[in-house]
């Protein structure tokens, strides 16, 4: 009888469930999108019922051809900093999930900076003080939802990032894995525990926080009669990691110095830095990559807020393309962007700039600018943002990165991958199986339940689809990158504050 691991991959715009076999191949997939909610400019929310409902339907689809007993374990991966609070007895959310992209707490972050907390937060949590992370989102819900703070102080509410919420819904256990905990801005990444003083400073009752756990262990078993999950009742949920750490694991970046970039809604570059956290001086953050078998690995990370979402904007708002794959075809009809530069700062700029007040801009327009030039500029701006991150990473880590492993939706674009190789001047390696985020979650679960015995066994499963090598003259690429930096300086600090 074939045996499988079920991976629940809950992302920013869709929920997926993917069944992996022992060879690391995909046996079946379920996927459902769900609405994005924008109550005000710069605010982004999800309805928790949409998150759970879409994930349940996706799981039901993925499990359709499976018999009870074939699934050995379940792994969960998730959009990370997105913040939920719910009633511990009823499971009813007290407010919509505040999404990682949401900038509503920018003002609170500025206040905390004025109080001199920047250094304290970075030294303890590895993070920069920014509205991106969960802590100030928790504060906002407690302070703005009627009776939420009183209920939290009475011990009636639970907080979780999305994996914590899903695990609670499936098993009744209130836990969070170390990789997600380290994205909250409340977690001591050195001691692997919640920081009581930071919780006190931010007036967050520690009773709402989940129990931190490793990334590969049994958290609980699936309760019976959960719609969509009936076939896996009693199966252990035994692997969890934030989506970017999961992709790093799924790409087989187990050794220090190995790096990957995921081209999703945002772009996320992570490098394994080994068992000791590296303090960034170049605008990056440090997180727990994973803990497996008692061994903790850390990662340097740079986050781009708008990557694939820029392609979505070109499709949905500007109507320049009708489907995402069209962008490469359109961009390839011109040899260059004709001096056009796109800065996709729709929700500010992430690493290494950390500018909450930047806004999007298109510069260099002339009367001869057409749809194809803008399409090409959109692809280029994604590559340039990843180049920003990689240059910062080299500076912090003090070593060259020999190769960049890539995944995520936009990595299917040969044109974008070639732009990336040209800009970075290193090989860009795209795997044959691009669902590396989901596979990372599956791999963590598979190690815990014994489907796979070691990381070496997992590494051997990875195959390259294509390796892109630098082709263009370096001086041309350097000049275009210089133009990108000029454009960023124009979009910076745009919103008056």
Structure characteristics:
six-stranded mixed sheet; Nucleotidyltransferase, domain 5; alpha+beta; seven-stranded mixed sheet; 497 residues
List the helices and strands and how they pair.
Blueprint (H helix, E strand, L loop, with lengths): L3 E7 L3 E8 L4 E8 L11 E2 L1 H15 L8 E8 L5 E4 L9 E2 L7 H9 L3 H8 L8 H11 L3 H6 L3 E4 L1 H10 L3 E3 H4 L5 E2 L4 E2 L1 H6 L9 E3 L2 E6 L14 E7 H8 L8 E5 L3 E8 L10 E8 L2 E10 L3 H9 L9 H6 L9 E3 L17 E3 L7 H27 L6 E4 L6 H11 L3 E4 L4 H14 L5 H5 L4 E5 L5 H18 L6
Parallel strand pairs: 1-5, 5-14, 9-12, 15-21, 21-22
Antiparallel strand pairs: 1-2, 2-3, 4-7, 6-8, 10-11, 13-14, 15-16, 16-18, 17-18, 19-20, 22-23
Helix pairs in contact: 9-14, 10-12, 12-13
Produce a short descriptive summary.
It contains 16 helices and 23 strands. By secondary structure, it is of the alpha+beta class. The radius of gyration is 22 Å and the shape is globular.
Please provide a written account of the structure:
- Helix content is 34%, strand content 23%.
- The protein is of the alpha+beta class.
- The strands form seven sheets. A seven-stranded mixed sheet has the order 17-18-16-15-21-22-23. It has a six-stranded mixed sheet with strand order 3-2-1-5-14-13, sandwiched between helices. The chain has a two-stranded antiparallel ribbon with strand order 4-7.
- Strand 1 and strand 2 (14-21) form a beta hairpin.
- The mean pLDDT is 95.
Please tally the β strands and state the result: 23
Oligomer: single chain
Total of DSSP H or I helical runs spanning 4+ residues? 16
CATH class term of the largest domain: Alpha Beta
- CATH homologous superfamily annotation of the largest domain: ATPase, nucleotide binding domain
Strand content: 15-25%
CATH architectural group of the largest domain: 2-Layer Sandwich
Q: Which structural class is indicated by helix and strand composition? A: alpha+beta
**How many domains, as an integer?**
2
Helicity level: 25-40%
Low-confidence stretches are: none
Might you state the CATH topology name of the largest domain?
Nucleotidyltransferase, domain 5
- Cα-atom radius of gyration: 22 Å
Instruction: Quote the distance from N terminus to C terminus.
Output: 62 Å
């Amino acid at each position: 009888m074939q045996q499988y691991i079920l991976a629940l991959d809950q992302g920013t715009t869709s929920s997926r469930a993917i069944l992996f076999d022992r060879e690391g191949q995909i046996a079946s997939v379920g996927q459902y999108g769900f609405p994005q909610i924008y109550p005000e400019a710069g605010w982004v929310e999800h309805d928790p019922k949409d998150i759970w409902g879409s994930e349940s339907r996706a799981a039901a689809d993925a499990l359709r051809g499976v018999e009870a007993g074939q699934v050995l374990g379940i792994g969960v991966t998730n959009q990370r900093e997105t913040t939920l609070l719910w009633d511990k007895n009823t499971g009813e959310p007290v407010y919509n999930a505040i999404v990682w992209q949401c900038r509503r707490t920018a003002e609170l972050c500025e206040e905390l900076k004025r109080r001199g907390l920047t250094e304290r937060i970075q030294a303890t949590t590895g993070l920069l003080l920014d509205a991106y992370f969960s802590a100030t989102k928790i504060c906002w819900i407690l302070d703005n939802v009627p009776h939420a703070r009183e209920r939290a102080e009475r011990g009636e509410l639970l907080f979780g990032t999305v994996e914590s919420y899903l695990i609670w819904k499936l098993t009744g256990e209130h836990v969070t894995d170390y990789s997600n905990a380290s994205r909250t801005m409340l977690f001591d990444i050195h001691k692997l525990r919640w920081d009581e003083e930071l919780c006190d400073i931010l007036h967050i009752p520690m009773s709402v926080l989940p129990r931190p756990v490793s990334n590969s262990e049994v958290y609980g078993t699936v309760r019976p009669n959960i719609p969509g999950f009936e076939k896996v009742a009693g199966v252990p949920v035994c692997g969890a990691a934030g989506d970017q750490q999961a992709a790093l694991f799924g790409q087989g970046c187990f050794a220090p110095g190995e790096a990957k970039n995921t081209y999703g809604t945002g772009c996320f570059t992570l490098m394994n830095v080994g068992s000791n956290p590296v303090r960034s001086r170049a605008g990056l953050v440090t997180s727990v990559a994973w803990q497996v078998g008692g061994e903790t690995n850390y990662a340097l990370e740079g986050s781009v807020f708008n990557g694939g979402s820029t392609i979505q904007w070109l499709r949905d708002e500007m109507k320049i393309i009708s489907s995402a794959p069209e962008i490469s075809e359109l961009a390839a009809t011109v040899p260059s962007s004709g001096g056009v530069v796109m800065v996709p700062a729709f929700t500010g700029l992430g690493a290494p700039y950390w500018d909450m007040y930047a806004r999007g801009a298109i510069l260099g327009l002339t009367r001869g600018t057409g749809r194809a030039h803008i399409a090409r500029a959109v692809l280029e701006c994604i590559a340039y943002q990843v180049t920003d991150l990689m240059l910062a990473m080299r500076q912090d880590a003090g070593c060259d990165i020999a190769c960049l492993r890539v995944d995520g939706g936009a990595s299917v674009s040969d044109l974008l991958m070639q732009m990336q190789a040209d800009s970075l001047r290193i090989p860009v390696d795209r795997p044959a199986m691009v669902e590396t985020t989901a596979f990372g979650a599956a791999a963590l679960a598979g190690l815990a339940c014994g489907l796979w015995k070691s990381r070496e066994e997992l590494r051997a499963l990875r195959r390259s689809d294509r390796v892109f090598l630098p082709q263009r003259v370096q001086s041309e690429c350097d000049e275009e990158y210089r133009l990108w930096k000029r454009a960023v300086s124009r979009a910076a600090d745009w919103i008056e504050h």
